[in-house]
Amino acid sequence: MAHELIDVDRYPIDHPGTHRYDQLVRACRHDMATIGCAVLPGFIPAEIAGGMANQLGTIETFNRCHVLSAWGDPPAADLPADHIHRRRFPEDTHVLAGDQLVGTGLRMFYETDGLNTFLADALDVPELHRFDDQFQDLNVVQIKDGGLHAWHYDLSDFVITLLLQKSEVGGQFEFAPFIRGEVIPGMVGGRDGRVWDERYDDVEQLFAGTWPATHMLDLEPGDLVMFNGLRSMHRVRAVHGSTNRMIAVMSYDTKPGFSSTDAINARLYGPRCQELLNTHL
Ligand SMILES: [Fe+2]
């Protein structure tokens, strides 16, 4: 019974329909609607999060070391050469894929009965299903001394993370709530077919450090975060010191059976993943 991993006295996800459960769901929905982010501090006890982190420290990671646009896709050809959509930022993170987490405490947590039902309630969607993709369903992202995850948008409407280990210095999560506007009706384009009101002037301020409405979270091990990364640009500030920042990323879809392609997984998780896919052809 994996409920023992969760602080159910504080977060009664095992008692849907009760007043306290409804209060918790209401608070999450409020935070998601107002700032696109809901934090549940100490969702699992810090020592359990630390134990999960200790299980992962020796598993070989894949280093994602790139220089990328915050939008991930190329800008429209008519944008000027110095436009911020063309600006590129470094990413230096290390990732573990879902298949490397079989048998870990973290996977036991991800597969907790009722967790996806609670998250669906909190995010105000009819249902949520874990990905049916052995690589993408559950990931761990580690950032080592000097590494960072620069400004970017996510591709999905929401992401659920659990901090397992914090760095000695840095590693704060910084985000600009809903700095991106709504989808522009009737236009087609971009990575997912949608064209957004990008509000480039606001993002220019964000990159310059003068955007007045950023939020910064200094998360503790065991904190659960629900986040809308599609409209809220975000980054993880540089990490310093000998302790890696380690965060679990749990993926869900509103429909069952989501799985990605082999080509995408090989790109996301590197040669180890590619070899595994080759041997199963
Ligand atoms: Fe992200």
Could you say which overall geometry the principal axes of the C-alpha atoms support? globular
Q: What average pLDDT do the residues reach?
A: 93
Number of helices: 6
Strand content: 25-35%
- Which structural class matches the secondary elements? alpha+beta
Number of domains: 1
Strand order of the biggest β-sheet: 1-13-7-16-5-3-2
Number of strands: 17
Which bin fits the share of residues in helices?
A: 10-25%
CATH fold group: Jelly Rolls
Rg, Å, rounded: 19 Å
Q: What do we call the CATH homologous superfamily?
A: q2cbj1_9rhob like domain
Taken in chain order, the helices and strands follow as HEHEEHHEEEEEEEEHEEEEEEH
Bound molecules: fe (ii) ion
**Could you give the distance between the termini?**
36 Å
CATH class: Mainly Beta
Could you name the ranges where pLDDT drops below 50 across 5 or more consecutive residues? none
Architecture (CATH level 2) name: Sandwich
Biggest sheet: strands, sense, closure? 7 strands, antiparallel
Produce the secondary structure layout.
Elements: H1 19-35, E1 37-40, H2 46-56, E2 62-69, E3 88-96, H3 105-110, H4 115-123, E4 129-130, E5 138-143, E6 149-152, E7 159-165, E8 169-170, E9 173-176, E10 183-188, E11 194-196, H5 200-208, E12 215-217, E13 224-227, E14 233-236, E15 239-240, E16 245-250, E17 252-253, H6 262-279
Antiparallel strand pairs: 1-13, 2-3, 3-5, 4-17, 5-16, 6-14, 7-13, 7-16, 8-15, 9-12, 9-14, 10-11
Helix pairs in contact: 1-4
The structure holds fe (ii) ion.
Residues 152, 154, 229, 234 line the site of fe (ii) ion.
